[in-house]
Amino acid sequence: xxxxxxxxxxITQIGILVNDIEKTSxxxxxxxxxxxxKWFWTDTVDVAQTEYMGKPSEARSKLAFFxxxxxxxxxIEPDQHPSTxxxxxxxxxxxxxxxxFVIEGMKEKIAVMEAKGMKLIxxxxxxxxxxxxxxxxxxLKVMLELLENDK
Amino acid sequence: xxxxxxxxxxITQIGILVNDIEKTSxxxxxxxxxxxxKWFWTDTVDVAQTEYMGKPSEARSKLAFFxxxxxxxxxIEPDQHPSTxxxxxxxxxxxxxxxxFVIEGMKEKIAVMEAKGMKLIxxxxxxxxxxxxxxxxxxLKVMLELLENDK
Lengths: 151, 151
Hints:
The structure is a homodimer.
Chain A: E1 13-17, H1 21-32, E2 40-41, H2 45-48, E3 51-52, E4 55-56, E5 61-68, E6 71-78, H3 84-92, E7 95-102, H4 106-115, E8 119-126, E9 129-135, H5 137-140, E10 143-149
């Protein structure tokens, strides 16, 4: 049996692309009987240092989170700059975009996955950590996001 | 604040449509370092009593499950009979199909959701319970599956 590439099998987040985060947040809040969370922008480019397909991008998204049992459901409304969020939304419309895992050792995990033919699509920083979207679609039929939080 | 329609916010399952359950199961098993689970067919029509878009259907799928933290990831390879699985796969290709919640009182939940404009797409029985796929895509940007297990 092979080793677990990520060192975890705990899905911590499901990310869903939307066109109107206000409207969809309101629908979730009503359906699940919770307060509508405030959405917020991902960090500006100086903090986020976003790279999409190997190039710096000013892309940002509005994000809103709902606690759904042991994981979070993340609504994502991207701006118009190039990103996996914007391109996926344009190509496929609204709907699920990724599942996320909290990992340790981002650089090493990315290297191991790239050696398996799973390409780094987008990466960036956020206050307290960093993320990477990996193109695992050919193998796993869903995109994975790696999240690494500083200790 | 409104009441939680489902009486739960715990996502118990993520369902992913695939063309080749053997191949994708193998990829998951290798990536997450687990044994490849055996897939199995959903029940035959006499047990499943599947209804798709209000009509009986002989549709079946091959299913394989992976434990991913507190929830299951379900791979679904549908046969060629009419079903949400087959139609979604034909229309959108491989990828996420639904998120599932374990509920109580299936008939009542379906009625409440239909009153909100969320249509029943497909329902059926399995040993020990029953399921319903509800078209929540317009509101929640993902399809919900309700699961009710006998006590």
